[in-house]
Write a structure and sequence with these properties.
There is one protein chain. The protein has eight helices and seven strands; from the N terminus they run βαβαβαβαβαβααβα. It is an alpha/beta fold and 266 residues long. It has a single domain, classed as 3-Layer(aba) Sandwich (Rossmann fold), CATH 3.40.50.720. A seven-stranded parallel sheet has the order 3-2-1-4-5-6-7, sandwiched between helices. Helix 5 links the parallel strand 5 and strand 6. The radius of gyration is 19 Å and the shape is globular.
């Protein structure tokens, strides 16, 4: 398939100052897409990624705003469309998480997790859909979910709840937007090697965790970006309302698979 299908299109990627969001923004820019690079604040990370995208695509827009603030989301997308003329792709990726047992959790952190990780994607999908409907052009939205959507990981109740809600958001939005040729899908990463993981784990701990995973390592942000671009692709019209696992096999019954392999070898 020709890379020309990406030319002249635009995208907004949230949480793009580092990690998965950065990988997605840069991958789109390398294909000639004009990217709105979002981060919480107008700091060095936002400026660095925006400059990389400008070097790749010739144009990029820095969009500092808090995805948990509905008015900021709406005004940010409006500003992007005024500057670029359109919105073809939207990737709600920004998230927040604290790790505490729910019955001991600080409620401010619990609520912040819900606000950023659940309400943020809702505000973005809502505002993005409004812009796409007004333009009368097809659009594609890919929300970054997580294996937390289906796994009850202890100490992460707010994040688990938010990601489960996000996947239902995707299916419902896809149903309601299909008449406008606006597709809504999700990518579900597994355990990805990002700066955010250093909030909870040391380098040694991450290395040990990686060795225990099916691939023998953590995933890379660019591997998640590959899945996002596959779903955003204008030529993938048949994929709508889907949740694509790009999780390195983390949800496979690995112990059972190893037993099957051993029996087969005997």
């Amino acid at each position: 398939m020709s890379e020309r299908r990406w030319q002249g299109r635009t995208a907004v990627v949230t949480g793009a100052g580092r990690g998965i969001g950065e990988a997605i923004a840069v991958a789109l820019a390398r294909r000639g897409v004009v990217v709105g690079v979002n981060d919480l604040a107008d700091g060095p990370d936002l400026q660095r990624v925006t400059e990389i995208c400008r070097q790749e695509a010739g144009e990029a827009v820095a969009l500092p705003f808090d995805v948990a603030d509905q008015q900021s989301v709406e005004s940010g997308l409006e500003r992007f469309v005024r500057q670029t003329g359109r919105l073809d792709f939207l990737v709600p990726n920004a998230a927040y998480s604290d790790r505490q047992l729910f019955y001991e959790a600080d409620m401010a952190g619990f609520r912040r997790t819900i606000d950023v990780t659940m309400w943020g994607p809702f505000f973005l999908v809502r505002a993005g859909a409004q812009q796409m409907i007004a333009s009368k052009l097809p659009g594609s939205i890919v929300v970054v979910s997580s294996t937390h959507a289906s796994r009850p990981i202890p100490g992460s109740m707010a994040y688990n709840m938010a990601k489960a809600a996000v996947e239902q958001l995707v299916r419902t939005a896809a149903t309601e937007l299909v008449e406008y040729r606006i597709r809504v899908n999700a990518v579900r990463p597994g355990w990805v090697d990002t700066p955010g993981e250093r909030k909870f784990f040391t380098e040694q701990m991450l290395a040990e965790i990686g060795r225990k995973l099916p691939m023998g390592r953590l995933e890379r942000p660019d591997e998640i970006a590959d899945g996002v671009l596959m779903l955003l692709d204008p030529e993938r019209e048949a994929i709508n309302g889907a949740v694509l696992s790009v999780d390195g096999g983390i949800e496979l019954p690995v112990d059972q698979l190893f037993r099957v392999r051993r029996r087969s070898a005997e």
